Batch of 4 targets.
Target 1
Amino acid sequence: MENEALKALFIVLKARLNREGKAAIICRITYKKKRVEFATGYFVTPDLWISSMQIVNPKVKESELLNLQLNLIKQNINQVFYTLKVNKESFDVKDIYRLYKGEDDTKEKTLLEVFDLHNAKMKKLVGIEYSKSTYPKFLEAKKHVSDFIRYEYKQKDYLLSDLKLKFLEEFDTYLKVEKRQKQITINKSIQRLRKIVKLAISEGFLSGDPFLLYKPKKVLLEVVYLTPEELQSMEGYTFKQERLEQVKDMFVFCCYTGLPYQEMASLRSNNIVKGFDKLLWIQIKRKKTNKVLQIPLLPKAKSIIDKYRNGDDLLPVISNQRFNSYLKEIANIIGINKRLTHHVARKTFATTVLLFNDVPMEIVSEILGHSSIKITQNHYGKIVQKKVSEHIKMLKDKLYNIEDR
């Protein structure tokens, strides 16, 4: 890309002449559409400067030494640039200038600068390593941090070397009080901030993690899902309005597959494959984690696909916003006193369809495509405890009946 190339240009300040009638020569470094200008310490008679060739007129006797000095400046800048290309995953024009001047480029790095480095790299990897929805979240995280620095420290930025554990604690309080965020949202913002700090460490901008001892505040997660009775009620209801009937069917489909919205919307006939067990499976890559989901196609889900299949398209197309809006209508009509969203279907699949039917947590985690079983345990641990309690109660009743014989 053109803006990825380094440009070093000499400019003669003809409007400012010294007592000898000579103008200062400055050097402008441009990289990724950002520039830095600095004085070279050399002067030239303006009429002798050939801008197109970037040299002093070689016909003049004194020009040879000056042209040599300017050429050395360019060579040193290029050498610094290639050194950074080899040793640094990301850098900007200020880093090039600092290293050219012989300064330690890690000393003056700021938190928001590293945020910019991270976000610039992430932007290039959208659709490759990251989903489109992930990038805006880091832009938002940077804004929250920037707003906090202005509010708390009355500064535009914050030096990495000044980061202490107290910074995170105050950031937590700021988001809670000033931004009115819930703890689960705050934890996400802090998680993204910590990723930026880890990048700073890996790049050599920080020698250690100032947030190493930080422990996220626990959040009691309430898992909203349909009970077996509510799911049965949803399945058995027929809507006269086509839009509501379609959304109901798609919701039920996700209750039996656990597909996230993006994967449901992009489902095609080539995502239905016959497995080693000769049964049909859904095989699709999850955009959020880039992990391949492999989900058994249960009879209820298959019947909905058969109902709407149109060539390679398996389900109706509808936006996530409209989908969730129609679900509110559906809940009111059926009499389900819960805030239904598409994600509730995924929770229903994990609980009512899988865990309540004694599918092990490890398998549930794999089918849902969670990156770690800890995520599954954090979300559904209490539900499993409830199921265990039911089994223990059944065991006690069974043992009680045996003793009575």
Target 2
Amino acid sequence: MNEDMRRALAVELWRSDMVRVRADEPFRLASGGLSPLYIDIRRLLGDGGLRGLVTAMGAFTIERSGLEADVLAGGETAGIPFAALLAASVAKPMVYVRKKPKGHGAAAQIEGGDASGKRVLLVEDLVTAGGSLLTFLDALERAGARVEDALAVFDRRQGGEQRLAERGVRLHSLCDLPLALAIGVERGFLDSAARGVVEAYLDDPEGWSAAR
């Protein structure tokens, strides 16, 4: 990925308030834990310019990294629109994966087409520890798909890449937390005290959360 593009995306995420740090009133994460840091990538969909930048970066990554895929798969729910944008950009079919099978009708977990025997690129908006991606990966593999790569708009670098690697899947990200923090300090979006709080959290997320 072109480093200038990655830096430009990081700047726009701060400028658009999609990266937020709030040490005094931590954010409650989906896991139930507390974090001084919140990354709201879904808001990107409402910004036409940023949406175009991310789509171009994703297509660039697919082409330059040699990601051979027959189908793109978006994870429920936030990965679906990004997969759709990328699939249209690179002229590939798309499916989406539910977190669990639908409780009625055909009880499908994969919607939009047949992934059996096909090489699938799994698309997500945000990766933290990788739990959601592993759920989607399990569903795709049960359906007979081959998943060798996953693409995320943002990687928080909290274990997701390692967990996917253990399953033989490479994670590619358009932006990540170390870069976002560096850009935040460089451009004045994040002062040194706030960065210290974030780094203390990243050193021990569970301990930081439990203490609050």
Target 3
Amino acid sequence: MKLHILGICGTFMGSLALLAKALGHEVSGADTNIYPPMSTQLAAAGIPLQDGYAPDGLDAQALILIGNALGRGNPSVEYILEQGLGYTSGPQWLAQNVLPGKHVLAVSGTHGKTTTASILAWLLEAAREKPGFVIGGVAENFGVSARLGESRFFVVEADEYDSAFFDKRAKFIHYRPTTLIVNNIEFDHADIFADMASIRREFHHLLRTVPGNGRIIARQGDSEIEEVLCRGCWTPVVSFGAEGEWRAEALREDYSAFRVLRSGEELGVVEWALIGRHNAENALAAIAAGCHVGVAAELACRALGDFRGVKRRLQVLARIGSVTLYDDFAHHPSAIRATLEALRRHVGRGRLIAILEPRSNTMKLGVHKDALAAALAPADQSFFYRPDNLQWDPAAGMAGLGERCQIHEDTQSIIEAVWRMRKAGDHIVIMSNGGFENMQQRLLARLEG
């Protein structure tokens, strides 16, 4: 069957392209933002890409998967509707063509989904289950963001964002998991959610889809999760976190080594490449989910020693002399602060420089503008990129940081400013959930030159 995917370079839609190709379909796609790592994955899979959404790239014989970034007014969307072509959403296609008959392990939450889902897939792999998965990033242990797998287990990153312009339900409503992780719930996606009440409603609908013989792994102490659970839950719940049934006890300050405890009993020790309490708790959730499907905690702890992380999740891009350059997929103040605090504990007195692009719709709207200065506080110096479509004044929002934050209206001036101030031992983190005008490679080239 022919499949044509609009928005194919998004991490989710690109992952579906890989699955469809593995199922034997003839796959093509179109996008306007073609950049690594997804463009590299698609090219390696032999999937042709069209730059832009001109309707002449559409085949009347193909089923068209429409990404949620596209809406009415898009030339391809208008052509599809006018010509009566067959179309569906990505989540619906996944639910109908890949997930039937699978034990679905879904990872939901505002933050940590990609890392937690990657860890969970790796734990199942270590247990020789050869799971299928679709993840919103490229897990280094697998080299891809999706695969069909060879077992009944399928790990899916379960996003609360809407499915398509014609289906405003959260993506995760389609997946019907048997094992569900709820990592955290905060306000995000202000372009589609009016308030926390609408987000709680979507998560409650997700809980309604988990069977009674399934398992929900939920963060203890998250007030929003507790409120959602109180609305009704028909599935056994296991808790993790500082006060949860599953806990992590740091053996090193940066959590590069920690004990795993369940109800006070030590089940194993993890020594791994990741840092930060938030990542240790991501691992706890994955271990608890793995335990539900028969992965022994002791085996899981050992396997984490071989977990290599996820591209663009505090990924070390390069070391230029004694200067280290990182790439991080930042999109929310809580995640930004957790990453910078973890890195601060890891590098000690080394100077920490953060470069932030407020790319998400929520960031651009200014929903979190009052929390960003505190999120960037662990950095010694911050550079804030002000795009043309930013709908708030960053000078006011960042005022609390004083001279520790510079605001720039073009990326080249940031690169030059960082180059001028660089010194031995610096740790430089580029924080964006988009291409950032190829800032990563451009800054790397400047530092090397």
Target 4
Amino acid sequence: MKTTTITCFGKSVSVFEFGNDTNPTLLFIHGNSAHAGFFIPLIRLLEPKYHIITLDLPGHRQSGAWKKEDFSRENFALLFNSVLDYFNISQVDAFGFSMGGLILLECFDLIPAIKKIAVVGHPPLRSVDDMPNAYVLTDDVSLYLQGSLTDDEAERVYNAVIQINDQQIKSEIKEALLETSPSFREGCLLMAQHVSDQVARLNQFSQPIAVIHAKDDVAIKLEYLKKLEINNLWGQKIQIISEGGHFIIYENPEELAAILDHFYSRI
């Protein structure tokens, strides 16, 4: 792994590079209140065949926090374009996990280098009105977009969304929830309230799109995903991971890696 620091909006952003840069490049975008380190189990499986770039999003782990007003599709596009320019990358396939999927689908059309797109843990949206149909919006799930969290609230989020029965993983995820800048969750809430028509923009995109769903994801409604009409949906269906929930990058990286490799390696 190589670590690089770039600057965007006057804040440092930590960027991590894995694998041989002569291989096809993948851009990984992590979820809300996570960080790039959570991708390691998945990266280790894909690293032999791919050059992988990921980063701590603003307000996470090693990256400085933006103001909540800075969270927009244009600014995320600027961030990702800056990362790709730094590495002189003209073509990249992208993967977004959870809120990283929402961010990716908000700004992909502003990033010329992006080709294939895959998302897991995020349902492509047509407007904010889709959210009650796409997400399971309980009070505890909604805490995921609350600014500051108490330890009790982080526990409620974990039990409502993550539900992995492993105390070490639980400790790591709760730590990430508590250390993430409140401005990220507040900024993403603002962005979600003004979400663009992601489905329409995907339907104007010429490249394949993979929408992946973990069978036991309690936050996303599979019924909504199955009703989506996306012209270039890979395989003409939602890709279902047979075992695992919302935090699939930890629960079942093997099956997720196999799907991503099949998707990205097909011409």
